[in-house]
Amino acid sequence: MSQSSYDQLLKQVASLKCENVHLRRELKDNSSHLTKLENDTSNMKDVLSHIQVTLGATDDEDDFGQETGAEHFIVFYM
């Protein structure tokens, strides 16, 4: 194996190590973001449940057959 081929392989290995570090960092960031989104989703479900209890409705309609707006409020709030 020539010296230039060996040097080229060393550069490729160094480049791949840097890329690996970058990808691991990105994976960690994405995992943290996903956890945050899951927590936000859980919190929004709690808010929706609280709103439904507060409005005295367990479905999406009031006594006149109209939508209560609770579901729409949550979507807008998010």
Automatic annotation (TrEMBL):
Give an example GO cellular component term for this record: catenin complex
**Any Pfam family hit:** APC_N_CC
Name a single GO biological process.
Answer: nervous system development
Supply the Gene3D superfamilies for this chain.
Answer: 1.20.5.10
The organism's place on the tree of life at top rank:
Eukaryota
Tell me, what is one Gene Ontology molecular-function annotation carried by this entry?
A: beta-catenin binding
Q: Which SUPFAM superfamilies does UniProt cross-reference here?
A: N-terminal coiled coil domain from apc
Q: Per its UniProt record, what InterPro entries does this chain match? A: Apc_fam, APC_N, APC_N_sf
Boundaries of each Adenomatous polyposis coli N-terminal dimerisation domain copy? 4-53
Against PANTHER family, the record matches this protein to: ADENOMATOUS POLYPOSIS COLI PROTEIN FAMILY, APC-LIKE, ISOFORM A-RELATED
What name is this protein filed under? Adenomatous polyposis coli protein
Q: Which organism is it from?
A: Biomphalaria pfeifferi (Bloodfluke planorb)
